[in-house]
């Protein structure tokens, strides 16, 4: 069944930035290329960008091209989880993001990863303070466990702080662990879900052996190839590809369309799909795929069924 309201489509910008800092993973560095990508996305009618202070040079390049004046911006506090959600660091990170983005406020400010060294009370207070200063319209959390989400919400309720209203998490046809424990909680607290890696980082496109995104030589490639490396997952990926091919649809397009139209996501809750591209052609292909709408019913059902074969071996929805 398709969602009652279409999900929002957001362009992820981890591929925009300083190539020298992440060769092979960043593909849009100079102003002309960044502007070209954003213009093409905008001209198709889309208005949301996701970035992060962790993505080297992404916010600064978006700022240089005036992105915040024509897009709704979602960004994230700097952090790898090691004491970086301490209040003074949150404050500094938000200040720097807004400077780099050349704007006084953004739509959403996420905590990028859980910081299990800093008390959640301190983090919640820092986000509430920044909210009251008008730095963002809403705040979100990314990669937290359901238990951590619940605890954070309780703290905000007890202290009278503004609550997080969006969760950004790993979700696609193979990564569905959040459906059981996370989504009921999000729905209960009226939190939206932004699904990252809706096409599992490109694994369904059958080129993982050739791209940096899956190379064990870099941090992200190593993470994704490890997360998706188990045999049942690889078999499931091949099943999705083969089923899609019978309909003349690419594995990548089928995976994206499944996440957008046949998953637990629903625009009525404010849910979104957050994709990325490493080339302009991929932007056009991706938007064409999404705009093609729901999949043929038997293909959608075949992809939905694949999860039962990987449950327990799949990457977790949280860090
Ligand atoms: N909050 C978080 O912790 C977090 C984590 C991850 C991502 N994100 C956000 O989510 C965004 C999207 O994540 P993602 O990159 O994992 O999403 P994705 O859309 O599942 O994967 C994107 C990758 O798929 C490949 N691809 C794209 N279009 C293609 C096409 N038409 N045909 C074949 N392959 C294609 C490209 O890989 P190649 O480069 O190999 O060509 C591209 O880099 C990021 O930019 C970021 O904003 C957030």
From TrEMBL:
Q: Does the keyword Oxidoreductase apply?
A: yes
Question: What protein family is recorded?
Answer: Belongs to the aldo/keto reductase family. Aldo/keto reductase 2 subfamily.
What is the name of this protein?
NADP-dependent oxidoreductase domain-containing protein
Q: Does NAD count among this protein's keywords?
A: no
| Sequence ranges assigned to domain NADP-dependent oxidoreductase in this UniProt record | 8-307
The molecular function GO annotations come to: oxidoreductase activity
Pfam families xrefs: Aldo_ket_red
Q: Which Gene3D superfamilies match?
A: NADP-dependent oxidoreductase domain
Question: InterPro entries annotated for this entry?
Answer: AKR (IPR020471), AKR_Detox_Biosynth (IPR050523), NAD(P)_OxRdtase_dom_sf (IPR036812), NADP_OxRdtase_dom (IPR023210)
Q: Which UniProt keywords apply?
A: Oxidoreductase
